Automatic annotation (TrEMBL):
The gene is LOC107419247. The keyword NAD applies. It comes from Ziziphus jujuba. Keywords: NAD, Oxidoreductase, Tricarboxylic acid cycle. Residues 28-170 form the Lactate/malate dehydrogenase N-terminal domain. Coiled coil: none annotated. This is malate dehydrogenase. The chain holds residues 67 to 408 of 411 of the full protein. Residues 173-337 form the Lactate/malate dehydrogenase C-terminal domain. Homodimer.
Length: 342
């Protein structure tokens, strides 16, 4: 009887832990770069989603072990591994959402743009395979420099004749996650309540948190605005320096990317109330790509929320103008890379 009751308690613990994971829909997600610092914890978090039936893990190496390991979790989704270019097409067939965290991360002293020479080619090759095998999938780009890799992806998809701007996303969720955390800490707010839109791009001064639009409404001194803005813009570098050569943000990034995947799946599943910030093709400014709040729907970006750019403070307006030349140059660098390769 004692054994029985322990068994029941263990089962109850498992059920309690699992109750969020009861299957609610069946979408297929592929992670390209799944054996990496981001790829592994991201794949774990996606394995916990009740909206996922199949999880395809692709990398150029070491992905068999990651998949074997993850497949032992008693959550519903099936995990499959795919190694190397010859297995890439099969990793992508029938997939609804593709997430790309493949590529090299920064070391101290580097900018995200210093990663361009290696990561641009990696993203180009992977997106070509996406175009050939699952052109209708939502495509989430994490690989840096995001300001350039998203325009590269757009050009590759155009060259293949399958570009749908509503389905291509630069993942800038981590900037929002950081802004929410830092503002809640600074202002002693309940974390769950805080939402700060972050617009522009995903590098240095192109990351522009709109602190005046923070929900709940909260007032900041000029010093607080300056200090919080700079902290949010340099948060990636803060982690790169703390890791001292061992890479950049992976765990917080996995958390942020998993949130964006879950939001995309909810939108695909018909939830009509899904909003996220993302770096997308946009007509909010004169730049062809811009991060802002968007509404997600079954077909991808359903609306770009323009109200965030109205009624900016003088500080925000100046910062917006100041970021445009750098963001424009990064976009053009991506586009011309994609054209040179053809
Ligand atoms: P990592 O080196 O730990 O992992 C990268 C993985 O990509 C490795 O497993 C590697 O084998 C794989 N890879 C390399 N070339 C590949 C290819 N052609 N196809 C498939 N996989 C390939 O790096 P990480 O820490 O996971 O970071 C990955 C990228 O994400 C970096 O470019 C980093 O700058 C970026 N990043 C972006 C954000 C963001 O907010 N968007 C945040 C953190 C990191
Ligand atoms: C981040 O913001 O943490 C990432 O873009 C990684 C980096 O290089 O800072």
């Amino acid at each position: 009887a004692l054994r029985g009751s322990f068994a029941q308690k263990a089962q109850k613990a498992d059920r309690r832990f699992q109750y969020n994971f009861q299957p609610r829909a069946s979408y297929k997600v592929a992670v390209l770069g799944a054996a990496g610092g981001i790829g592994q914890p991201l794949s774990l978090l996606i394995k916990m989603s009740p909206l996922v039936s199949d999880l395809h893990l692709y990398d150029i190496a070491n992905v068999k072990g990651v998949a074997a390991d993850l497949s032992h979790c008693n959550t519903p989704s099936k995990v499959r591994d795919f190694t190397g270019n010859s297995e890439l097409a099969n990793a992508l067939k029938g997939v609804n959402v593709v997430v790309i965290p493949a590529g090299v991360p920064r070391k101290p002293g580097m900018t995200r743009d210093d990663l361009f020479n290696i990561n641009a080619g990696i993203v180009k090759n992977l997106v070509e395979a996406v175009a050939d095998n699952c052109p209708d999938a939502f495509l989430h780009i994490i690989s840096n420099p995001v300001n350039s890799t998203v325009p590269i992806a757009a050009e590759v998809l155009k060259q293949k004749g399958v570009y749908d701007p509503k389905k291509l996303f630069g993942v800038s969720t981590l900037d929002v996650v950081r802004a929410n955390t830092f503002v809640a800490q600074q202002k002693n707010l309940k974390l769950i309540d805080v939402d700060v839109p972050v617009v522009g791009g995903h590098a240095g001064i192109t990351i522009l948190p709109l602190l005046s639009k923070t929900k709940p409404s909260v007032s900041f001194t000029d010093e607080e605005i300056q200090q919080l803005t700079v902290r949010i813009q340099n948060a990636g570098t803060e982690v790169v320096e703390a890791k001292a050569g061992a890479g950049s943000a992976t765990l917080s990034m996995a958390y942020a990317a998993a949130r964006f995947v879950e939001s995309s799946l909810r939108a695909l599943d018909g939830d009509g109330d899904v909003y996220e910030c993302s770096y997308v093709q946009s007509d909010l400014t004169e730049l062809p790509f811009f991060a802002s709040r968007i509404k997600l729907g079954r077909k991808g970006v359903e609306a770009i929320i323009s109200s965030d750019l109205q009624g900016l403070t003088e500080y925000e307006q100046k910062a917006l103008e100041a970021l445009k030349p750098e963001l424009k140059a990064s976009i053009e660098k991506g586009i011309s890379f994609a054209h040179k390769q053809t």
